[in-house]
Design a protein that fits this description.
Layout lengths: L1 H5 L5 H24 L16 H14 L8 H17 L3 E9 L2 E10 L5 E8 L9 H18 L7 E7 L13 H11 L3 E9 L29 E6 L3 H14 L4 E6 L11 H5 L5 E5 L21 H20 L2
Parallel strand pairs: 3-4, 3-5, 5-8, 6-7
Antiparallel strand pairs: 1-2, 2-4, 6-8
């Protein structure tokens, strides 16, 4: 039966119909598995607020006052870490640091913990270093700004679970994909201590948006069938092992604001979905997602001196933070 369907001996028009139907089914299955569709739409009745000017202040501090903040400028990295720690403390967190050495230089991750000391925890992180001498407003002062404002929201919330927010060092080259990455150090320490992590969420470039048609690019022409070509949306990226979390985040984020939300689910062998700190947790056996504006698939200022604070959309950034918070609260309420 299957052989006759795939290799038919029927007339040409019947073969054509079968081919079209088969192709439609294949594309439908591919669309569902890659995009993890969700029907939930914006419901404005119950959302928190995030100040756009606060996000801008954080980005200015990192991209201007602490520039440059690559691996060579340890003083500026330490200045960035101190600023982040101070913000975490104001938010009411239990603040700590993870210090380690690379080639005789000292680097640090800054951690903020909220909620009861439950057996398992949820980790949210963003890297604060930059590539070479770039200001890194989108990459990744935007993610850190979102992390800080998320801390202020969590500090005002009665939580059921333990949340750990982490600002990572050394995500960028020459340490990218190495054991020297701050996220690699953090994930390995938790694995070594047998810490249970329910989910890790990486905030990787969440500030660049465009309403211009054709502003969104894709690593594959096939993806153009599934996603819009206007870069005005935020993306949730994960692997097949995180399908449940992708659907939950997508529904929660779509319900929290009117910002368009899309998602991509693929195998962990897909190179484009591994380009951030979440992959460090995959490498240590933990489930992880990335929240991103799609980086160089949209922002042509990626790793350029033109990646400046004025190029970001702080209204959209605030909506991203609100959406992530609402998604985390859904996890917090789940048993």
């Amino acid at each position: 039966m299957i052989r006759n369907w795939i290799l038919p001996t029927a007339p040409f028009h019947i073969q054509a119909i079968r081919f079209v139907l088969t192709l439609t089914v294949i594309l439908g299955i591919l669309f569902y598995n890659v995009t993890q569709p969700s029907k939930r739409t914006y419901d404005p009745r119950a959302v928190v607020s995030v100040r756009q000017d606060a996000l801008r202040e954080h980005v200015d501090m990192l991209a201007v006052e602490c520039h440059p903040r690559n691996h060579k400028f340890v003083r500026n990295l330490d200045k960035s870490a101190a600023y982040i720690a101070a913000q975490f403390e104001v938010a009411g967190a239990e603040v700590s640091e993870q210090v380690y050495q690379v080639k005789g230089r000292t680097y640090r991750n800054m951690m903020a913990e909220f909620g009861p000391k439950t057996k398992s925890r949820i980790v949210v992180g963003a890297h604060y270093d930059t590539c070479q001498d770039t200001p890194g407003a989108d990459d990744n002062a935007s993610g850190v700004a979102g992390l800080i404002e998320l801390a202020h929201l969590l500090g005002k919330t009665e939580l059921n679970k333990r949340f750990e927010l982490v600002a990572y060092t050394l995500e960028e080259p020459p340490h990218f994909r190495s054991a020297n990455m701050g996220s690699a150090q953090h994930a390995y320490r938790h694995r070594k201590n047998a810490t249970e992590i329910e989910l890790m969420v990486a905030l990787e470039m969440i500030g660049y948006f465009s309403d211009e048609p054709g502003s969104q690019n894709f690593p594959s022409m096939l993806l153009r069938l599934f996603y819009p070509d206007t870069g005005n949306f935020i993306s949730i990226i994960g692997s097949y092992g995180e399908r449940k979390y992708i659907r939950e985040f997508k529904a929660a984020m779509r319900g929290a604001t009117d910002l368009p939300v899309h998602s991509m689910c693929a195998t962990r062998a897909t190179p484009m979905i591994t380009f951030s700190d979440h992959s460090s947790y995959w490498n240590n056996g933990y489930p992880a997602l990335m929240i991103t504006d799609t980086a160089f698939m949209r922002n042509l200022r990626y790793h350029q001196l033109s990646d400046l604070p004025d190029t970001l959309d702080y209204d959209a950034m605030a909506k991203v933070v609100i959406g992530v918070y609402e998604a985390l609260m859904r996890l917090d309420r789940a048993q």
